[in-house]
Amino acid sequence: QQTTEHITVEWRGRVGIITLNRPHALNALNLALGAEVVAAAAAMDTDPSIGAIVLTGSEKAFAAGADIKEMAGRSYADVIREDFFSVWDRFAAVRTPTIAAVSGYALGGGCEVAMMCDLLIAAENARFGQPEITLGTMPGIGGTQRLARAVGKAKAMDLVLTGRMMDAEEAERAGLVSRIVTTDTLLDETLAIAEKIASMSLPAAYAAKEAVAHAHESTLAAGVQFERRTFHATFALADRAEGMAAFVEKRPPTFTHA
Ligand code: CO8
Predict the structure, then answer these.
(1) Of 40, 108, 110, 132, which one is the catalytic site residue?
(2) Cα separation, 28 vs 224, whole angstroms
(3) Which of 63, 66, 101, 122 is catalytic?
(4) Interface pTM (ipTM) of the complex?
(5) DSSP code of residue 254
(6) Which residue's CA is minimally distant from atom 28 of ligand 1?
(7) What are the mean pLDDT values of the chain's consecutive 10-residue runs (258 residues total)?
């Protein structure tokens, strides 16, 4: 376990856990926190002994948005020069499966970062929203795009234009959330899912994740063609031969992640 200024990083077997730890600001995402998360996630992403990455916050807040106090004094010229918040692109580009475990508020940038993850597990007390409009601005870390793709135009417009929050049940109904669990079991349940994912062949997981991500980024025909070639490519893996042989021989597979 390693603690830096704004986060705690833990390795549990093949699962990496990044916990946002800025309680006095409800885990608001300032640039320093973003840099710490991205550095930790990038290190885990290039470590083949890690097969899944969990991102979580506190019980009260996953993250209550980008840090409004840090943004308040910036001008248009400042944010365009800094390409403000592009630091999170590296997190979105992580190839290892990522899971957001969300308890409490996931607002603004917090919701946007949760949506960058492959799975989103919500505690019963989770609240999602894009309240930027109430600050005279709009989502800027992918929210308009990822929310619209996840929940469709009607609900995305509703959330982005009114700034209202939705609870865990509405988020699950809308397709934003993979599963809802009780608040006190959130981390245990998420770790069980992460361990399951991490026990699979990592190269097969890279391929599967990349192909599912394509569904959001291409036409159906191009996505299906990409999927077919990626599927074909898994036949180069020892894990693919082992997984199928194990099934035929009625035994559990032993994956070597190769
Ligand atoms: N930024 C900075 N500080 C925050 C933030 C935030 N987003 N959210 C909460 N805090 C701070 C509060 O200021 C308060 O600090 P202090 O004790 O020093 O006053 C502390 O956290 C606790 O917060 P509250 O007292 O407000 O706690 P409550 O339980 O009363 O309320 C809420 C919780 C409802 C979550 C409330 O804090 C709130 O509305 N927060 C702001 C939510 C929000 O608007 N988020 C969107 C931010 S904008 C954004 O994310 C833009 C992303 C895109 C940027 C891209 C740029 C290019």
Answers:
(1) 132
(2) 39
(3) 66
(4) 0.96
(5) -
(6) 26
(7) 96 98 98 98 97 98 97 92 93 98 98 98 98 95 94 97 98 98 98 98 97 90 88 92 95 96
